[in-house]
Amino acid sequence: MRRASQLWAALVKETLGLVRDKEALLMLIVMPAVFVLIMSLALQDTFRQNIPRPMRVMFLAGPGVSTERLLAALRHEHSLTVSARITRDDRAERARVRTLVREGHAALAVVLAARPGSSRPRTAILYANPALPAQMRALGISLVRRAFARVASNRLASIVRRFAPHGPGVRAAPLRLVVAKGGLDGAPTPTSAQQNAPAWALLAMFFLTVPLSVAVIKERQQGIITRLRALPVPSWVLLAGKVLPYFLINSVQLLMVLGEAMYVLPLLGGDALTIGHAPLALVVVAASANLAAIGYGLLLATLVQSQEQATSFGAVSVLIMAAIGGILVPKMVMPAAMQEFSAISPMSWGLDGFQAIFVRGDGLTGVLPDTLRLLGFGAACLLVAAVRFHRELRPQ
Amino acid sequence: MPGRPRGGPCGLLPSLAWCNTATLLNMAASLPRPAPEPLARPPVEADLAVDIQGLFGRYRRAERDSIEDVSLTVRKGALLGLLGPNGAGKTTLLSMLCALMRPRSGTIAVHGLSFAEAPDAYKDLIGLAPQSLALYPRLTARENLETFGRLSGLSGARLRARVAFGLEFAGLQDLAHRRVETYSGGQQRRLNLATTLLPDPPVLVLDEPTVGIDPQSRHAIHENLRALNRAGKTIIYTSHYLDEVEQLCDEIAVLDNGRLIAQGALGALLARFTGNRIELRFDPRTVEAAADILRTVAGVEDVAVQSPLLTLVTDDPYRRLPAILKMLAHVHIRPLSVAVGARDLEQAFLALTGTQLRDGS
Q1: Considering the domain boundaries, does residue A182 fall inside one?
Q2: For an engineered disulfide with B253, which of A186, B39, B130, B263 has Cβ 3.0 to 4.6 Å away?
Q3: B-chain residues within 8 Å CB-CB of A223?
């Protein structure tokens, strides 16, 4: 009865202290909500499988059959929007096209220089907007090359037909390539919301390290720990009093972020978050990540000696974990070695767990490895924190 | 509260102001010599609230003991002032008493119980008011009291009653629902003390409970402490404000360099450690001449001038005082006042611990 009353007191004071700390609440709840909106919308196109908008390509050439064929081949590419200018006097036009591309009015420009004294084109020059991302630039060039190749192969086929009108002819390639939906291995890839919602929720969970450790440091600095040490209250009661309120806050924060990504994001033009069909697995992953974050926060609280250390080391260590773990930078854009290295971050385990449910539709079995890693990490941190806290409270 | 020897306003032998020399001589001759007062009466175990024997204590990684061979007994119902310069070992001693620090050797018993025997029961006997304001600033006064009350093991009707008592003790009934961070320093100090009283422990350990507050709050705290002491609480009180210790406490213990250098009733302590002094006040124009003359008096070992005061150190002030006054009368110099012994606790404290600056914590 006495312990229950003490535990209740520890819970209430910690909860009241936390909910009345506006800065901490702002950081724990509002920060991830804002980040999820911004980042999901900003990275939406990067995560989509198709090219977001057709790239605008300018085409400048003199009149002629080749021009018409090339223009037709370029227009055949669905990912390109071609605006053509056919003129014999192309000098002034070339300068204008280059300016337009440089200023970003078009992604690419294809200019077929006229052969002197002839209307037949000789050299093709491709201009690309310097601000175009490297991947988009490579894609655009590849599409233009494919159009050129189509013209050349058509021409070759017509020559073959002319010289061997009764032969087998040249048909389309007997093999047809179908790109599997979702990627080379057939696995689906996350949408922007499926990446960003759990990622920023996890970051906020681990960011509670800062207010949690600051709260413990303040108790120490204000002499409250001294008073607590003089009271007949065991250390585990005080520690449990810290775990539960932060667990609750983190759970509320996660629910808000998921709800926002499911219902608010689509209203702003983003992809709605789909969370799979395994609510129990979701609860297990969320609780494991929550415990891991709180364990790390309490460990840090028992290690650092000042508020400055708590805020600086806490924030920096969490940001490093986030950077490694695919939170700040999605793992899919990391090099292979870096993707492997990211497996050392607890946030990576959490993100993998969430995405296994959201993207692959996994259940409890599928998230078990990541859950066990998170629980192991959290338990180890909590154990060390409990030992250190007990040592701090007992007679020294 | 047990009585203690009190005389003039300084709590010493009568201060003889504005008398003529003949009167002074007559009075000096008839001055009753104070009977030697025992520094501490022999302790009876059942009578003791705190019994510390042969205590040694050292902080981790420290090269020397902060507390060396301290034996201190505090009677039930006593109001003991624990004094010492910075770094003397007061906080260390209190830490060991409150089971915050483990003694290197020695024993501590509170109401006959040691911490090792029953840790929770031992802690129930002691209420500690730390030097810092050990309160949750974002919680209200009521919430703080409820929190610490529950953590102390209270619940139900008893908790409610003790919280009500705490608010009344701190004079914060009307502000009970305001956050502590909005309180004045005095209000926070009063609440800090009230929090200590929640479980109603028989022994209170108060580490500088009035530091940094206004005279009104200090007065209120003193009044409350006297009332608690009258009700039977044993109070161990540390402060650097020696005047308030002198007003409040009936017993004094002085620590220096980790050792207990004195303990006993206030009057006895003053008489013992500064009883060889005579302090005379003169017209400033005559104080130097008086000093020159008194240096020649037999038995006067030292003469210190701090105009208009002149302090003499003698082998026996009561025997030497008539001769001193006679000598002064002979040269027509009249002291304005005469006092034997220390003026106040501060003088006694400095006599005991010296005047060298201490920067320890």
Answers
A1: no
A2: B263
A3: 130-134
State whether B134 and A224 contact (CB < 8 Å): yes
Chain B interface mutation, best of A221, A224, A238, A396, highest count of B Cβ atoms under 10 Å: A224
- How far from B192 is each of B112, B128, B178, B237, CA to CA, in Å? 27, 10, 15, 14
Q: With contacts defined as CB-CB under 8 Å, which chain A residues touch B134?
A: 222-224, 226-227
Query: Check: CATH 3.40.50.1820 for B16-33+276-340?
Result: no
Rg (CA), chain B: 24
Find the Cα–Cα–Cα–Cα dihedral B246, B252, B255, B260, rounded to 10°.
Answer: 160
Q: Judging by DSSP bridges, how do beta strands B259-265 and B126-129 pair with one another?
A: unpaired
**Which helix (H) or strand (E) element contains residue A74?**
helix A65-76
| CB neighbour class for A147 (10 Å; exposed up to 12, middle 13-18, buried from 19) | buried
Instruction: Judge if A33 and A105 occupy the same domain.
Output: no
> Is the same domain home to A275 and A140?
no
> Does one domain contain both A273 and A379?
yes
In this structure, which amino acid lies at residue B347? Q
Q: Give the torsion sign (CA, A24, A29, A35, A38).
A: negative
Amino acid at A107: A
Q: How far is CA B125 from CA B49, B119, B171, B221, B237, in A?
A: 9, 10, 25, 21, 16
CA distance B46 to A300: 47
Contact A395 B128 (CB under 8 A): no
Residue A183 domain flag: no
> Exposure of A187 by Cβ count < 10 A (0-12 exposed, 13-18 middle, 19+ buried)?
exposed
Q: Start-end ranges of CATH 3.30.70.100 in chain B?
A: 16-33+276-340
3-state secondary structure of A193: helix
**Coil, strand or helix at B343:** coil
Residue of B nearest to A12 (CA): B147
What ipTM, to 2 d.p.? 0.71
pLDDT digits (tens, 9 = 90+) for B228-260: 999 999 999 988 877 788 888 888 888 888 888
Q: Which of B198, B138, B151 is nearest to A218 (CA)?
A: B138
pLDDT along chain A (396 residues), means of 10: 89 91 81 84 69 77 84 87 82 84 86 66 79 81 89 84 69 58 58 88 90 89 89 91 91 92 89 87 95 94 89 92 89 82 93 90 90 96 94 83
The superfamily CATH assigns to domain B47-270 is: P-loop containing nucleotide triphosphate hydrolases (3.40.50.300)
Pairwise CA distance, residues B277 & B347, whole Å: 11
Within a 10 A sphere around the Cβ of B284, how many other Cβ atoms? 10
Number of cross-chain residue pairs from A and B with Cβ atoms under 8 Å apart: 94
Same domain, A218 and A328: yes
Distance separating alpha carbons of residues B216 and A249, to the nearest angstrom: 43
Say yes or no to pLDDT of B41 above 60: no
Looking at the structure of chain A, the number of domains it has is 2
Give the amino acid at B198. Answer: L
Residue A391 token pair: 């040592």
Give the number of other Cβ atoms within 10 Å of residue A316's Cβ.
10
Cα distance between residue B307 and residue A340, in whole Å: 84
Which CATH number fits the domain that encloses residue A109?
Answer: 3.40.190
Range of the domain at A119: 55-163
Cβ contact B333:B285 at 8 Å? no
